[in-house]
């Protein structure tokens, strides 16, 4: 994580902590690296002076602290101390060493399918703990995920709220990061754990493509795309694309649960690590990649629970939808009007006999079948050679050896008898 020197206006001591560096700044306050007298390092967040007198922001800050206290497990940074009544309210959490997911992708490039799935499985498990505590994060994004040596950690619950709490934002006002907000947030509707699932899907897509699945542009353009356009997943590996697409469903009821995501991504990570996967579409431009079929309704839950299926490029799991034709890069021009879309062309399945023609075997399965056939042929030939060698040796010994002489019993002649 990048650190900056303290500025002239920054405090040097807050509570029992001495501040050493700036870690970052956001809409609510500034985060510092501090340490107590025992040397324990913390990430300390202080509300901005201009917001400290705003009761709405104080309430939101208090909610962040309350959320951090309720969450159990190693998915978030542990709360160390807080002072909500100070002139400038603050709270300190355990310092998490390691870059954010945003910084890692920016510096080292996109993540491989196995690594992205592994991080996604841990994050989904962390979201399970967050939601069990009755909290919805509402601003999950790559910069709010720290990659520590012990696993990813979710930070910055500044706009999180408890399930059932009343909103502190005006109707129609979206609080969060464009490109990672769920459609219901943009519309000002109630948020649920499914809201975090949408942001999770956008975050996983970013890890695999280094871009938001809704492209780039002004806030208005991005929010319009989130509500009205389909995500662009052309660069997402085939192993992850259907699951990411299910997370990005416009209807919250059609998104998989965090428990299903954790189990499925752990399975995908294991398969990809063993090399049993489909090669990603590196040769295609992002906008040209086929849009995977999104499971909806009950199919979303069934898809998240079923074993991982592999199919070659162009099969039913990765084809059947046209890519989005809406223009990208329209920053500053207001909401873009979606261009006319070409209807999706579906190739009818060929039926043989009484059912559908089975999909061709995956490359890994074909390779394993060829290896088994080769081993069987080699073992059979060796057995045949050994049998032939044994029979040849037996015949050779019988053909070249001397015939057995007949056994003749000695003739007994009694004394005095004439000789024969």
UniProtKB/TrEMBL annotation:
Its EC number is 2.7.11.1. InterPro entries: Kinase-like_dom_sf, Prot_kinase_dom, Protein_kinase_ATP_BS, Ser/Thr_kinase_AS. Residues 291-302 have a biased composition (Basic and acidic residues). One of its GO terms (molecular function) is protein serine/threonine kinase activity. The keyword Iron does not apply. Gene3D superfamilies: Phosphorylase Kinase, domain 1, Transferase(Phosphotransferase) domain 1. Coiled coil: none annotated. Residues 276-364 are annotated as: Disordered. Residues 327-363 have a biased composition (Low complexity). Keywords: ATP-binding, Kinase, Membrane, Nucleotide-binding, Serine/threonine-protein kinase, Transferase, Transmembrane, Transmembrane helix. The keyword Membrane applies. ATP binds at residue 45. The chain crosses the membrane at residues 373-390. It holds the Pfam family Pkinase. Residues 17-268 form the Protein kinase domain. Residues 309-326 have a biased composition (Polar residues). CDD domains: STKc_PknB_like. This is Non-specific serine/threonine protein kinase.
């Amino acid at each position: 994580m990048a650190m900056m020197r303290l500025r002239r206006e920054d405090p040097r001591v807050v509570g029992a902590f001495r501040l050493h560096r700036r870690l970052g700044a956001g809409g609510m306050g500034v985060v510092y690296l501090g340490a107590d007298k025992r040397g324990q390092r913390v990430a300390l967040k202080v509300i901005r002076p201009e917001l400290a007198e705003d009761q709405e922001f104080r309430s939101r800050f208090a909610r962040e602290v309350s959320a951090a206290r309720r969450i159990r497990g190693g998915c978030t940074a542990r709360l160390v101390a807080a002072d909500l009544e100070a002139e400038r309210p603050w709270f300190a959490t355990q310092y998490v060493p390691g870059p954010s997911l945003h910084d890692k992708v920016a510096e080292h490039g996109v993540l491989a399918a196995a690594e992205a799935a592994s991080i996604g499985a841990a994050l989904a498990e962390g979201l399970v703990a967050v939601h069990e505590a009755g909290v919805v994060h509402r601003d999950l994004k790559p910069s709010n995920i720290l990659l520590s040596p012990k696993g990813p950690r979710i930070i910055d619950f500044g706009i999180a709220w408890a399930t059932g709490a009343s909103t502190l934002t005006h109707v129609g006002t979206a609080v969060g990061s464009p490109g990672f907000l769920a459609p219901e947030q943009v519309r000002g509707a109630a948020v649920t754990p499914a809201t975090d699932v949408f942001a999770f899907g956008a975050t996983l897509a970013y890890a695999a493509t280094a871009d938001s699945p809704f492209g780039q542009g002004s806030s208005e353009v991005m929010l319009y795309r989130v509500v009205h356009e389909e995500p662009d997943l052309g660069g997402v590996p085939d192993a992850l694309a259907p699951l990411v697409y299910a997370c990005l469903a416009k209807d919250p009821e059609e998104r998989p649960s965090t428990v299903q995501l954790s189990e499925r991504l752990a399975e995908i990570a294991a398969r990809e690590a063993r090399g049993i996967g489909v090669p990603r579409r590196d040769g295609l431009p992002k906008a040209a990649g086929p849009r995977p079929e999104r499971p909806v309704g009950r199919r979303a839950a069934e898809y998240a629970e079923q074993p991982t299926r592999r199919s070659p490029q162009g099969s039913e799991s990765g084809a059947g939808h046209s890519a989005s034709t809406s223009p990208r890069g329209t920053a500053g021009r207001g909401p873009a009007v979606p261009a006319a879309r070409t209807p999706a062309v579906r190739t009818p399945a060929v039926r043989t006999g009484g059912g559908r023609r089975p999909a061709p075997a995956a490359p890994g399965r074909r390779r394993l079948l060829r290896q088994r056939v080769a081993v069987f042929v080699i073992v059979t030939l060796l057995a045949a050679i050994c049998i032939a060698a044994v029979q040849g040796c037996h015949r050779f010994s019988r053909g070249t050896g001397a015939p057995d002489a007949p056994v003749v019993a000695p003739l007994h002649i009694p004394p005095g008898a004439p000789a024969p």
